[in-house]
Recover the amino acids of this structure.
């Protein structure tokens, strides 16, 4: 009797919450979980799933075919190359900028600098790609106009694969460096000011204070962002590579997501592209879990 | 050495110089594209335009804004952005709010099922096949439905809700208020900053988004959002012929038109972002606190 009335009581107080959850759960079920069933295409020859019972299962043939394809191998190589460059050049950039901003003594000027440095983040990749062409194109680009007007020779910023690679990385840094300082600056304000006072008493120079107080204070944030970055090593921002792409650099600009788009949607190789997508998702998840585990093992605070 | 009064040292000048350079690097590309849009085509062809307009005129803007296809896409994107903000905010609230009730049975499993979608995605092609089966390809709804809840934003909102003292909820419950009344009367009014932040995240994301149109709307160009249209304009106008650089002079007018289209697409964002960046900063750090 009491159990029944308890249940009734619980239901009276909670039915509205379940009702609210109906639409969001339906959303996740349809748009996140049904595609997980479609993933079975990767093991089937048909481009359409007939049904789990009707299709011929062909094992790992689609995966094997993908790895034998030179364009896919190139895409994997390029993805890893850009991830490495982003890690080596793009990851430290906002940390350095945050340290510089923190050392800036004029609050007004600091605020203006921050506001302006956030701006590129709000421009879409398409706009950034368009601006890159107006600035750096070999024939009509403003930078090359300035170079040739001064008697120099036009430089193929966007048409030579090597220079395109570095332009791509630098433009990506340009777009996000200011925005990415936010999280570091927030972490800096949380550092105990007494640490700086103690360092002052010890006669520490500015650089020593940065090295011995500020950077150690940033370590937990740096570690968490590093774990996330490592988890994304097999991925790439499709918009970035499509917006900056051109025909002359295709052998370095094709990354896994653009490969999936071109081979999957444009050429309708659904099964093959699904296999590639699974490969990327699984590697990403494994990398994320491993780096998180490693960080915890080394005594840091993991992501969860 | 470090007394109370701080002197401006050599190091300070180095930092100030670097920051001025940073400001220039951020602003000059934007000034460049604006200048080209406002310059005379002949001056562009003679390579005279850099960071200020030469032969100032607004012909490009009247041309682009007079183009029916461009205007249609611009208005549609504005309407779409408004719809997306309302729909996504509503869905995100409906998802985040019930998960703040610790007494809710099944809360943990529901949270896990939702967060799992962030960890492992099915990928593009399985989603493409689903949308095809749902008859959503080339349907304007495909720009709204698949992205209604960002799990990341949902977690930010849930954490904000969790920061609201439980005592408020409990006293309202004693007064006989149900969850819906508590949401409307207590939680939403107290959550204006986080609602503004997340609403703006959704708005900027939709205004700048084009991938869904690229993947799922190739056959319905009349519903292309502005960034997708811009992508097509830039793709078709850009010639990379460095192999033969001196062959033909680039048509300055095409350059200027393209620049004007870029400027028009970025103006709404540039006008709004200085005022809303405060909220964005709050949002970016809100997500970080919990980690």
């Amino acid at each position: 009797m009491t159990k029944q009335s308890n249940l009734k009581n619980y239901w009276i107080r909670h039915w509205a919450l379940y009702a609210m959850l109906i639409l969001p759960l339906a959303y996740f079920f349809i748009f996140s979980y049904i595609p997980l069933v479609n993933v079975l295409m990767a093991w089937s020859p048909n481009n359409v799933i007939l049904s789990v019972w009707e299709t011929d299962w062909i094992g790992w043939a689609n995966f094997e075919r993908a790895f034998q394809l030179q364009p896919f191998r190139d895409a994997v190589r390029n993805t890893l190359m850009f991830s490495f460059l982003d890690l080596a050049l793009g990851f430290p950039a906002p940390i350095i900028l945050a340290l510089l901003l923190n050392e800036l003594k004029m609050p007004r000027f600091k605020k203006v600098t921050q506001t302006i440095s956030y701006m590129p983040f709000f421009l879409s990749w398409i706009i950034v790609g368009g601006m890159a062409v107006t600035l750096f194109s070999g024939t009509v680009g403003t930078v090359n106009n300035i170079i040739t007007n001064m008697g120099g020779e036009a430089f193929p910023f966007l048409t030579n694969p090597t220079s395109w690679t570095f332009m791509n990385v630098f433009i990506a840094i340009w777009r996000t460096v200011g925005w990415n300082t936010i999280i570091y600056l927030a972490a800096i304000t949380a550092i105990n000011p007494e640490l700086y006072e103690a360092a002052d008493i010890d006669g520490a120079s500015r650089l020593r204070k940065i090295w011995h107080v500020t950077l150690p204070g940033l370590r937990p944030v740096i570690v968490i962002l590093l774990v996330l970055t490592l988890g994304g090593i097999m991925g790439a921002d499709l918009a970035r590579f499509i917006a900056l792409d051109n025909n002359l650099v295709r052998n370095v600009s094709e990354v896994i997501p653009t490969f999936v788009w071109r081979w999957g949607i444009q050429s309708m190789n659904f099964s093959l592209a699904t296999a590639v997508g699974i490969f990327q998702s699984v590697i990403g998840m494994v990398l994320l879990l491993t780096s998180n585990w490693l960080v915890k093992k080394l005594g840091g605070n993991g992501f969860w | 050495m470090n007394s109370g009064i701080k002197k401006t040292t050599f190091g300070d000048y180095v930092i100030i110089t670097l920051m001025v350079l940073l400001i220039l690097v951020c602003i000059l590309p934007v000034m460049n594209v604006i200048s080209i849009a406002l310059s005379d085509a002949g001056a562009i062809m003679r390579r005279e335009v850099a960071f200020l307009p030469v032969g100032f005129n607004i012909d490009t803007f009247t041309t682009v804004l007079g183009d029916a296809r461009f205007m249609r896409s611009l208005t549609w994107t504005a309407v779409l952005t408004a719809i997306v903000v309302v729909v996504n905010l509503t869905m995100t609230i409906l998802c985040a709010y019930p998960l703040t009730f610790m007494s809710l049975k099944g809360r943990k499993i529901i949270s896990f099922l939702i967060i799992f979608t962030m960890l492992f995605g099915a990928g593009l092609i399985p989603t493409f096949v689903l949308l095809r089966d749902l008859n959503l390809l080339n349907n304007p709804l495909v720009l709204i439905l698949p992205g209604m809840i960002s799990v990341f934003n949902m977690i930010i909102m849930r954490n904000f809700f969790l920061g609201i003292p439980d005592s408020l909820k409990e006293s309202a419950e004693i007064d006989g208020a149900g969850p819906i009344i508590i949401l409307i009367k207590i939680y939403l009014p107290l959550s204006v900053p986080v609602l503004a932040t997340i609403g703006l995240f959704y708005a900027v994301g939709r205004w700048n988004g084009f991938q869904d149109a690229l993947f799922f709307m190739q056959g319905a160009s009349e519903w292309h959002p502005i960034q997708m249209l811009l992508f097509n304009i830039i793709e078709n106008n850009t010639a990379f012929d460095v192999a033969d650089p001196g062959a033909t002079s680039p048509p300055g007018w095409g350059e200027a038109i393209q620049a004007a289209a870029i400027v028009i697409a970025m103006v709404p964002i540039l006008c709004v972002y200085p005022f809303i960046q405060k909220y964005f900063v709050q949002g970016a750090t809100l997500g970080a606190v919990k980690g």
User: Anything to note?
Assistant: Chain A touches chain B through 102 residues (CB under 8 Å). The radius of gyration of chain A is 26 Å.
